[in-house]
Amino acid sequence: MKQNCIVSSLATRGDPRFNKDYRGNPSLMIIHQNSDTGREELSDDGIVHIKASQKGESHRKTVVIDVGKTFTENALRWMPSHGLTAIDAVVLSHEHMDAIGGLDDLRGFQALHTRNAQTGLPEQTPISVHLSETCLAALKSQFFYLFPKTSLFAGESVSPDGTRVHRHVSKLDFCVVQSFQPFLAAGLRMIPLPVMHGEDLIANGYAFSLDGSNNKKTNVVYLSDISRMPIETENFIMEKLPPTDVLVVDALSLDGLDHHTHYNLRQAVELVRRLKPRRTFLVGMSCDRFLPHDDMNRELKALDVDIEFAFDGLLVETR
């Protein structure tokens, strides 16, 4: 092990629930509350409208951005502490395994209804998965069994004697999103923000707003996989979106260590100074040359911006 990879050795020491140097793939779980008076729906003009809902209907929804290779592990670790058992919608940034590797594991986080009369298994409520056209094409190749080609349900196959064989896989409803065009993910209005993740791949960041106390909104911009900010995307954030309260951005390496698919710390700080968010959380850090989590945050406090390392299990409250 390299002598400068201190964080790697620290990551394996102690319970991951309390070890801030233990890092899974970047992912964001959003717990939002729909209006007490109705259900949000998005019209063709991009405006969110409220429609009446039945009294007593649950409005607490869970949206997850990216479900990578370590998603299941972290979901099982952190969801119970927030009283969560199911996921309502998934939003994907791009088609690399650190964002999609846990797609089939979503079967364990689907709400269940009455049992199917034919299979005897509980019916799964499909999880909507929002993604770009390019990402969808990649998933059809990598997770072909989640896209049934016949009248059989996803997860079913036919044995040589004609018997249907059921396999328990995720039941997903794929929804293609377009750059800068708002969409609803389990009632949460989100806007895709295209950024470069290497010069040969466009990843999506996302902007959304959450209700806080005193009818105030917390405006979030999430950019987990970025190597270059297109000018049209930065202009959109600055001119079309409300001021950013919370920015989440990747910082793979320290200053001076440029990478072709990710920001380094210097690039992330430069973006923060341009966008001027109230708070910034860094994600996707490698171990190489970084100090341990708490030591890095002490150093970041010396900067002229509010910026800190995120950690697995971090809870960010709306204001």
From TrEMBL:
Q: Which InterPro entries match?
A: Metallo-B-lactamas, RibonucZ/Hydroxyglut_hydro
**Any one Pfam family match given in the protein's UniProt record, by short name:** Lactamase_B_2
Q: By its UniProt entry, which Gene3D superfamilies does this protein fall under?
A: Ribonuclease Z/Hydroxyacylglutathione hydrolase-like (3.60.15.10)
Domain Metallo-beta-lactamase positions: 62-283
Could you identify this protein by its name?
A: Metallo-beta-lactamase domain-containing protein
